[in-house]
Specification:
CATH superfamily of the largest domain in chain A: Ribonuclease Z/Hydroxyacylglutathione hydrolase-like
Distance between the termini of chain B: 9 Å
Largest interface: A-B, 16 and 15 residues
Number of strands of chain A: 20
CATH architecture of the largest domain in chain B: 3-Layer(aba) Sandwich
Oligomer: heterodimer
Strand content of chain B: 15-25%
CATH class of the largest domain in chain B: Alpha Beta
Number of domains of chain B: 2
Radius of gyration of chain B: 18 Å
Distance between the termini of chain A: 46 Å
Largest sheet of chain A: 7 strands, mixed
CATH superfamily of the largest domain in chain B: Rhodanese-like domain
Strand content of chain A: 15-25%
Strand order of the largest sheet of chain B: 5-9-8-6-7
Number of strands of chain B: 9
Shape of chain A: globular
Structural class of chain A: alpha/beta
Largest sheet of chain B: 5 strands, parallel
Strand order of the largest sheet of chain A: 6-7-8-9-10-11-12
Amino acid sequence: MSVNEMTAKEVARKVIHKDELFILDVRNESDFNDWKIEGENIAVMNTPYFDLLDGVEEILDKIPADKEVLVVCAKEGSSLLIAEMLSDAGRSVSYLKGGMKAWSEHLEPVKIGDLSNGGVIYQFVRLGKGCLSYMVVSDGEAAIIDSTRMTDVYLEFADHIDATITHVLDTHLHADHISGGRQIAKKTNAAYWLPPKDAAEVQFEYQPLEDGNVVTIGNTAIAIHALYSPGHTIGSTSFVIDEKYLLSGDILFIDSIGRPDLAGLAEDWVGDLRETLYSRYRQLSDELIVLPSHFMIIEELNDNGSVARKLGTLLAENHGLNMTDEKEFRAMVTGNLPPQPHAYQEIRETNMGKITPDNEKQREMEIGPNRCAVR
Amino acid sequence: MIKSNSVLDAKGLACPMPIVKTKKAMSSLEAGAVLEIQATDKGSTADLKAWAESTGQQYLGTVEEGSVLKHYLRKSSGEEQIEKKHKHVISNNELIAQLETNKNTIVLDVRESAEYAFHHIPNAKSLPLEELEDRLSEMNQDDEIYVICRTGSRSDLAAQKLTSAGFKQVINVIPGMSKWEGAVESTL
């Protein structure tokens, strides 16, 4: 039987299309428990490769013969070995090219919608990590917001649609992933905007992004209005794009809200977070479509793979936006915090330009689940 | 420098090869022997640890030297099965209490030096079982000596040897370092 190669892109398509897939994850148990590929119709089984070195007979009857089977490991090598053993045992299986490393780095571009005067906004869904970044395009110019470190993806995409990247923005100083903002700005000579309150310690030049700033993309003027919205970090800023979309950064998600503790000041910032969510956001139009910087669970994806909801819907349904008792809100936000993301301090320092780890190290720092929210 | 019986060079090899080679190297080792595995694959630490657990081998620890990871494994010896013969024993908790009242309590750790290096009771003396007979002169026959190993078996043998060599107050600590909840330190 044959062993096929499946790319992270193909897996992403299956997740979005809710296709059936059986995954045999051969990483060690703790890595598997930490994070794995998830999807509505994806079944996963974990048996470490090192328990299968003497043969796969013991698990054969647990692997469905009538479903597509994908063997997954950290980097590829072990999954290929186990896939070959399954193939020798008469099964037709695939292995994930590049392993979980590739899965963690894959970005799936999804068109969110049209803007006035022919503009378009795209969301880049990083399924393996739950990160969302954006490209706003108008009249041959593009802005990138909350980019990941996979900068080539944005550069190639812009090239493909004949757009020149002129502005790069981050809604806040990220603690869960390494921003590609500075690299993209450097490569394209674009302006790099950061909220100055988050950037007090950064070691490079940037454009200060302040409440009321308007950044214009293209001659037809797609306006990005900066809306100061502290809470996740002191500088956290939301963007209103074309009076239609609200990029909420790590302040408001679909089914959860931002955690205030990753810069170490949960108690101090919880008040800001409440002010942003319960006062500032409520003054905005209910019709705005919220585009966050993360999703937490796969169920938050829309049918086309995008992550977006009307602000009015979230105001009505998101638990974190519906806690009238401030004490209860404080207790939830400061007392209910999930473990802090892997290497978050090092990630912050990297995003400040204080340390410059090599690619391998950056990859390792980002491994694991995203934990930016409280529910 | 941590002592091992054998060294496996798995540098530059990607997963699964470090484990595949380790498995092979361990099968040719004698029970109780220590293997040093040199690897550069970062994922090898978690995998070796998990593999050791699932196969009953003893993972001692990992030392990072530049880009090289040195992992230490001890081949399972089945020593837990052996019947303990030395009569004079003390529990882990009793020894913890004893250490609190008397700072000069003599603890003799008879595990391999690699096991001792990663975690041992502060001020415990390291004297691996197989070196015991040659180094008896390092101890005083009249002292009270608490002998400890991982599970109480090697220390049982050591206690018998010490007693027959004329040591008068030898106490075996049961079960030993595998369940030790008192203070520990490492010499790395």
